Amino acid sequence: AQSVTQPDIHITVSEGASLELRCNYSYGATPYLFWYVQSPGQGLQLLLKYFSGDTLVQGIKGFEAEFKRSQSSFNLRKPSVHWSDAAEYFCAVAFQTGANNLFFGTGTRLTVIP
Amino acid sequence: NAGVMQNPRHLVRRRGQEARLRCSPMKGHSHVYWYRQLPEEGLKFMVYLQKENIIDESGMPKERFSAEFPKEGPSILRIQQVVRGDSAAYFCASSPDVYEQYFGPGTRLTVT
């Protein structure tokens, strides 16, 4: 069955520390992959996406993600976290060519401490 | 270019009333999607529409829920005879072609 898993419900990091948020999917082929960020009471903002090509993709706000086919993963990283990065992060997947609905993980809440 | 607009941002309805949620896509976007977010959960796909057509409604509950995207005007998500379990945040997204979806700020529906 197709699924998207974000194993970490809540992560706390110190400001300035590095960050990695995990995302795994279950699918027989390579899906289209996305990371979104949601601030409290707000909508979702697209951070980055992977369709094909270079497996390391750069996004906005200093974020990057790496697609690893062997691990069915698309982890989000940032080398130095800022207090303003505190938010909910969602991994999303489009499983089928021509299918337009996104499947979302359950999200990882990031807390940044001074 | 204004982003995806949704209104109202907050909606309170009593059980049994109707809720109408509106979504205006970004200029030039002809694809509209509706998602529902329950507390502490990710977004769940409900329906995908293009102008005057429902393309995929596989995520819509079979009863009480309907959606439209008319030739003129915003897309509407309509929930009839609301129940407490309908309380959620409803997000609309639009895209110019496929896959890269831009989300609105959401409508938070509370059923009392």
Question: What does this entry show, briefly?
Answer:
The complex is a heterodimer of chains A (114) and B (112). Chain A is an all-beta fold. Helix content of chain A is 0%, strand content 51%.
Give a quick set of tags describing it.
heterodimer, A: 114 residues, mainly beta, 6-stranded mixed sheet, 4-stranded antiparallel sheet, 12 strands, 51% strand, globular, B: 112 residues, 7-stranded mixed sheet, 11 strands, 0% helix
Give the H and E element order of chain B.
EEEEEEEEEEE
Overall mean pLDDT score of chain B?
92
**Order of helical and strand elements of chain A:** EEEEEEEEEEEE
Poorly predicted runs of 5 or more residues of chain B: none
Give the DSSP E fraction of chain B (strand runs of 2 or more residues): over 45%
Put simply, the count of helices of chain A is 0
DSSP helix fraction of chain A: under 10%
Largest sheet of chain A: 6 strands, mixed
Task: Give the N-to-C terminal Cα separation of chain A.
Answer: 41 Å
- Contiguous low-pLDDT stretches of chain A (5 residues minimum) are none
- The proportion of strand residues of chain A reads over 45%
Spatial separation of the terminal alpha carbons of chain B: 37 Å
| Rg of chain B | 13 Å
Q: Please tell me what the overall shape of chain B is.
A: globular
Most extensive chain-chain interface: A-B, 22 and 28 residues
Helix percentage range of chain B = under 10%
Number of strands of chain B: 11
Explain what the structure shows:
- The complex is a heterodimer of chains A (114) and B (112).
- In chain A, strands 2, 5, 6, 10, 11 and 12 form a 6-stranded mixed β-sheet that branches. A 4-stranded antiparallel β-sheet of chain A has the order 3-9-8-7, with no helix packed on it. A two-stranded antiparallel ribbon of chain A has the order 1-4.
- The mean pLDDT of chain A is 92.
- With 114 residues, chain A is mainly beta.
- The mean pLDDT of chain B is 92.
- The radius of gyration of chain B is 13 Å and the shape is globular.
- In chain B, strands 2, 4, 5, 6, 9, 10 and 11 form a 7-stranded mixed β-sheet that branches. Chain B has a 4-stranded antiparallel β-sheet with strand order 1-3-8-7, with no helix packed on it.
- By secondary structure, chain B is mainly beta.
